[in-house]
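input
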Amino acid sequence: MAIHKPVLAKEILEYLNPKPNENFVDCTVGEGGHAEAILEKTGPVGKLLGIDLDPRQIEKCKLQLAQFGERVILVNDSYINLKEIIERKSFGQVHGILLDSGMSSAQLEGTQKGFSFKLDQGLDMRYNDETGYLTAEKIVNEWPESEIEKILKEYGEEKFSKKIAKNIAEQRKQGRIKTTFELIEIIKDATPSIYWNRKIHYATKTFQALRIAVNDELNNLEKVLPTAVSILPSGGKIVIISFHSLEDRIVKNFLKKSGLKILTKKPVIASGREIKINPRSRSAKLRAGIKIYRYAKKL
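output
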């Protein structure tokens, strides 16, 4: 299994600027890499609330962060319930919030969820089985061709969305499409050969679009941002990392309208050195803001 490397860890600490005894929320705690770096700065009594929709990530995080004892509170839930979780856990004042929308290598390859096109698995793509009945298999087999084309175009920014959707609709007439490898072949047959040998795998955008649709990721991001800002006190900071242009656009537009003081005029990206060590950091974009006094009553 690949070792998880937290993306833009140095930059996150720079913009969150955690200090001793401050409390932070990691809305997408994952395997705890970012959380560990924050906790190392906030001793002796600073707390961290880590939230993740994937129960497997929470279990890994418990081991990763065990050394911090009661300073860590981990919750298997959706970050759209952020305010309710903070109240339920009596977490107290929050000095900063981190939201990293990326997936770890373990999520991509270490489960049987069909997130990765490298492994032949069922087309599930739910982060959590308890959150709904919608799966990628249901979308490709039951949704109208026009709706499949729409999500491939909008969520995946796939230029061959029409051809891929048409080929999916044709192939499912012969039998239900059940596995990642079956879907990959359908995508390949719908795209030109020049598309097959690029740096980005030809199935990447389709898989991204399906995952976003299954987990309602863009709508959830739009919902959590104003909630997160409302929770912050004056001087509180928010840092968001996105991994594709749709997410980054949502974050950028929100920060412009939020009344926060924007700390990143342009998105912060990974250094060449980090990209060499951790190739998945290539697409990461970090944006940050701080809640300042004159806006505190409005948010």
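quick obs: The mean pLDDT is 91.
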